[in-house]
Amino acid sequence: MHVPVAIVGAGPSGSLLAWILRQRGIESIVLERQSREYVESRIRAGVMEQNSVDLMIKAGIGERLQKECMYHRGVAIGLYNEHHFLDFDKLIGIGVTVYGQSEVTKDLLGGLAAEGHNVLYEAPVRAIEDIEGDRATVKYTHEGADQELTCDFVIGCDGFHGPSRQAMPASVLKTHEKVYPFGWLGVMVNAPPSKDVALFAHHDRGFALLSMRSPKVSRLYLQCKPDEDLDEWPDERIWDELDTRLGTPGWELERGEIFQKDVTPLRSFFCYPMTHGRLFLCGDAAHIVPPTGAKGLNSAFADVSVLSSGLIQHYTKDDESILRRYGEVALERNIQTQRFSWSNTSKYHIFPDSNAFDRRMQAGEMEYLVTNETAQISYAQQHTGLPFAYWPEL
Ligand SMILES: Cc1cc2nc3c(=O)[nH]c(=O)nc-3n(C[C@H](O)[C@H](O)[C@H](O)COP(=O)(O)OP(=O)(O)OC[C@H]3O[C@@H](n4cnc5c(N)ncnc54)[C@H](O)[C@@H]3O)c2cc1C
After folding, report:
1. What is the percent of the chain with per-residue pLDDT over 70, rounded to a whole number?
2. Does 244 fall in a domain?
């Protein structure tokens, strides 16, 4: 079998890319290791930049998003147990949108299924070969049998642990990585959010975050050890610690049933080049950020915007100019996103090896942010997201 575009992975980047190409009549196949139910229920990101929202709407898959999302004018910052509201909308005329990643994937995978698109679930890709030749080969397993196909382009949307990045020749691929000495203990809670915007708290005992997935479901996080043992965290201890780090006089954190607990280690990673021959890396396959800046899903969408523009231009106008620039343009934006996520992570968290000087400087930086309007404008611009370099013609 030969297909023009083979997409590895049906997460947000793979499913959005397949959807956009389909709107322009460009044939693709999506190969996904997991079942559809598994992908749709994976709880991860919850904050969308305006450009990500606009891309879904432009691509004709934003109807439910527009109806059910929550728009936040800004964020609150907790410092010395006081809450400071940064009104992004007032500062720069734009806020952020809360809509769960599981809802994004449900919309996209549901849309693809309704149009009968070729998405193979439980079809793990085993190898990607011949990327320097005229046609690339993708080897995968489906319904117990080994299969293979050829394609014009392979798009690696298979996340950090997928096989696409490994298919790049070792002599070509460069990587940069930082593993943080802490993680996030996250809980999903059946309770309305205790604030109308997300609350990011810098506290001597460690970072804490109050965020939300819907008007009835809250998502809360505590900085913890990267290998924290969840057995040591009964619900009562989690609530007490959240109260300590997030609390302020006169305000109470609403408690509710905790229906999921997880620990996420924090890591920054990016690689380049993001393309080699017929292979293009997209989303988490090429870069990972710690969740402090809520940038992972949005960076994946920024890549898709450029890559889909390039593929549409190639197939409809026989012009490869955007496609050839993809790696460079996507990396350039990602470096700025990496910088914001790293600087935010460094600002908010307590590093185990920091001394009194480090901690005072860190607190000083937070004081500057909550009191200086110029610092707030810069923060708002980065938090709400940098522009996408190219938008697909739809
Ligand atoms: C706790 C947490 C909170 C987060 N919060 C935010 C946030 O608020 N905002 C934000 O923007 N981002 C956030 N992120 C990051 C965001 O979830 C990711 O950046 C996003 O999922 C990247 O999408 P992707 O499609 O590139 O990769 P993925 O979502 O990882 O999808 C990759 C897909 O490839 C499949 N795959 C892997 N190997 C193979 C194979 N061999 N064959 C076939 N398929 C394969 C996987 O099963 C998966 O479905 C968060 C992440 C975590 C963990």
Report:
1. 100
2. no
Strands 96-98 and 47-48: antiparallel
- pLDDT tens digits, one per residue of 12-26: 999 999 999 999 999
Cβ atoms of 34 and 48 within 8 Å: the answer is no
183 CB near ligand 1 (under 6 Å): no
| Number of domains, the chain | 1
Q: What is the CATH number of the domain that holds 13?
A: 3.50.50.60
Question: β-pairing, 136-142 with 125-129?
Answer: antiparallel
Of 44, 56, 165, best ligand 1 pocket probe by most atoms within 8 Å of the beta carbon: 44
Q: Note whether residue 13 is domain-resident.
A: yes
Range of the domain at 274: 2-70+97-178+267-348
Nearest CA to ligand 1 atom 21: 297
Residue nearest to atom 26 of ligand 1 (CA): 283
pLDDT tens digit sequence for 265-310: 999 999 999 999 999 999 999 999 999 989 999 999 999 999 999 9
Residue 229: how many other CB atoms lie within 10 Å: 9
pTM listed for this prediction: 0.95
Ligand 1 mean position to 12 CA, how many Å?
Answer: 7
Is the CB of 31 inside a 6 Å radius of any atom of ligand 1? yes
Q: Is the CB of 125 under 6 A from ligand 1?
A: yes
Q: How far apart are the C-alpha atoms of 338 and 29, rounded to whole Å?
A: 30
